[in-house]
Amino acid sequence: MLGFGNSPQEALVASLLAMALVGFFASSLMRWRGLARLTDLLMPAALLAAYWLTYNKVPPFPPVGAVNKAFYVIAVGTAIGFAAEIAAPRAVRLLALLQPVAAAFYVGAPRLGIASWEVALAAVAGMAVMGLVFLRGATGTEGDVKRGGVIAVIALGFAPIALLGASSSSFQLCLMFAAGCFGILVVHSLKPAFRFGGASSIGALGGLIAIADTVVLITRKADLIALAVLALCLVLPAFSAPVCRTCGLSRPFPRLFTHVALAALPAAAALAVAYIYYGSSFPI
Amino acid sequence: MKYRLAAMLLSMTALSGAVSPAWAAKFDIDPVHSGIAFYIDHLGFSKVIGVAQQFSGTFDFDASKPDTSSLDVKVIVASISTNNKQRDDDIQGADWFNATEFPEITFVGKEFKKTADNTGQIVGDLTIAGVTKSTTLDVTFNKEGQNPWTKNHVVGFSATTKVKRSDFGMKAAHGMIGDEVDLVIQVEGSEHQG
User: Within 13 A of B119's CA, how many CA atoms are on the CB side?
Assistant: First the structure.
């Protein structure tokens, strides 16, 4: 029986359940109250909650070290993204594209001069991720739920890579964030009314990119092959529309399921690559 | 007469070693005969032992005026070992010591107090992962004298302290891994040459 904290595994499972349930209820409440625009804040809020549950702290400001910087990348990104969404909607896309560059250079600042090309590469990779998730695909609420689903899958796929990359905290954080996202999005799986706007892109996706920057640039033990396989999460969902047409799937839920399932395939493959590569030393 | 003089000189030399000559001097920490270890609780079952394999430092010491001492120590974070590669990789990462951004742990002594004949306290600034906290070392003065092998002027101390890792921003795995860390330090300093 689940003891809710009697063991580290139970504590993690309890945290995942709590994140999913809180996400579900917050998302349901907003949907019931017709606060569609505010749903944009749900995913970054889930990431901040996952951060707090993982590290048990709000880092001091100004932040010292990459892990503490990541918190403020999420918080400030959310504020900027949400403000831009209201005051200057046309600027949101540009800001979203600039965020991964700023995050890579901010988090990776200690690597500048030593391995500047790594920081530049992380910035370009982050921009590509942001572009493929946020700037591509259909607009509208269904497209926004699909974007949220892909981010949840990326977080889920990145978790074991972070664990192998010597960051057990990022592993927990990514799992909790993914659980929160699934709780938030399941409310919108049948009849979407979800907004993936400036806060979700710059705060949540941008924050996840900053966490990945921390593992890749600072801890520097990420498996690049597994990361490359995980990147296919961003490519395969492009085939969801033709697959749905071929299979005659026209309702939102099957279309959404197909989209997220296609994203999940490379995430599972990334886990398999990591498992095969590390064999019995895989720490699970 | 010649034999008597030689015996007298020999006995004086031996005596001078035994009474531990003390004078103000600058010492280099001898890493071969010094050690830094830490103990941290694991789920209440045991204390995991970690050691720093690379460190360096200098100190000024005069046994007759210990309050005028100085101390400056650097520990290479990448050299910290807990005898398990997975865990050692983890603690080098951004969640813990963050060796990439903060490759050294430093301790700078600020205040030196004698508390008894051979004990004292050093209050200093301990910097780990970019966070500096005032820390007090409880120090035992072991011995000062000539190393019979190298003939160097040597002084030795033992020190202990407790720190909370959360004070230095390391809050990961709270509840599984203890917050309080016991530090045990053995230092042998050899008088600085040249």
Answer: 5
- What the block records as the tokens of B191 is 């008088």
- Of A262, A173, A168, nearest to A210 (Cα)? A173
Domain annotation covers residue A283: no
Give the tokens for residue A1.
Answer: 């029986």
Whether residue A44 lies inside any domain: the answer is: yes
For residue A18, give both structure tokens.
């709590």
Contacts of A170 in chain B (CB under 8 A): 95
The answer as to whether B18 is a domain residue is no
Residues ≥6 apart with Cβ < 8 Å to A158: A170, A174, A208, A212, A230
Q: What pTM was estimated for this model as a whole?
A: 0.83
Q: Which among A8, A65, A220 has CB closest to B129?
A: A65
Identify the band that residue B71 occupies on the pLDDT scale cut at 50, 70 and 90.
Answer: very high
User: Is ipTM > 0.95 here?
Assistant: no
Integer Cα distance of B164 and A68 in angstroms: 18
Give the tens place of pLDDT for each residue, B40-65: 999 889 999 999 999 999 999 988 88
> Which CATH number fits the domain that encloses residue B94?
2.40.128.110
User: What range defines the domain where residue A47 resides?
Assistant: 8-278
| Torsion of Cα atoms, A268 then A233 then A201 then A128, to 10° | 130
Q: How many domains does chain A have?
A: 1
**pLDDT tens track for A47-73:** 999 999 888 888 888 888 899 999 999
Q: What does A123-139 look like in DSSP terms, one character per residue?
A: HHHHHHHHIIIIISS--
How many DSSP H helices and E strands does chain B contain? 2, 11
Q: Is B177 a member of any domain?
A: yes
Determine whether the interchain pair A166/B98 forms a contact, defined as Cβ–Cβ distance below 8 Å: no
Provide the 3-class DSSP secondary structure of residue A47: helix
Please state the separation of Cα B15 from the chain's center in Å: 29
The reply to whether A3 falls in a domain is no
Domain count, chain B: 1
Contact B95 A281 (CB under 8 A): no
* Residue B84, domain extent: 26-191
Please report whether residue A201 resides in a domain: yes
The answer to whether residue B101 is domain-embedded is yes
Residues of B in contact with A54 (CB under 8 A): 172
